[in-house]
Amino acid sequence: MANDSNTQMLKGILQGCLLFLLADQELYGYAISEALSKYGFNDIPKGTIYPLLMTMEKKGLLHSQSKPSPDGPNRKYYALTAAGITAKRAFENQWNSLASSVEQLIKEKSSHEN
């Protein structure tokens, strides 16, 4: 059960990260995976990213478009919608609040150990 909640939490965080990556530019799946790796998300399987992109598109946070690739078949590029931009702002606010609370708790509890 703990593993299940960890997976859900990771998917929520990953969705927020995807919103940030796609806010700057439209990207295709493999480029998204590479960008995530650049920020330390090395262990995210491709089988997690694509279903999440599809779910986000169904929710109206993203839209996709097939474009020609210089390396072979067309690629599906993803970009934020207006709802995606709103969701990105909401995620940023929630994350900042959560991170601040966790940092405060850790700082206070760690100081009691010393």
TrEMBL record:
Q: What domain of life is recorded for the organism?
A: Bacteria
Q: Pfam families recorded for this chain? A: PadR (PF03551)
What Gene3D superfamilies does the entry give? Winged helix-like DNA-binding domain superfamily/Winged helix DNA-binding domain (1.10.10.10)
Locate the coiled-coil region(s) and give their ranges.
none
Q: Which residues form the Transcription regulator PadR N-terminal domain?
A: 18-85
* Protein name, UniProt field: PadR family transcriptional regulator
Please name the source species. Answer: Lactiplantibacillus fabifermentans T30PCM01
Q: What is the lineage of its organism?
A: Bacteria, Bacillati, Bacillota, Bacilli, Lactobacillales
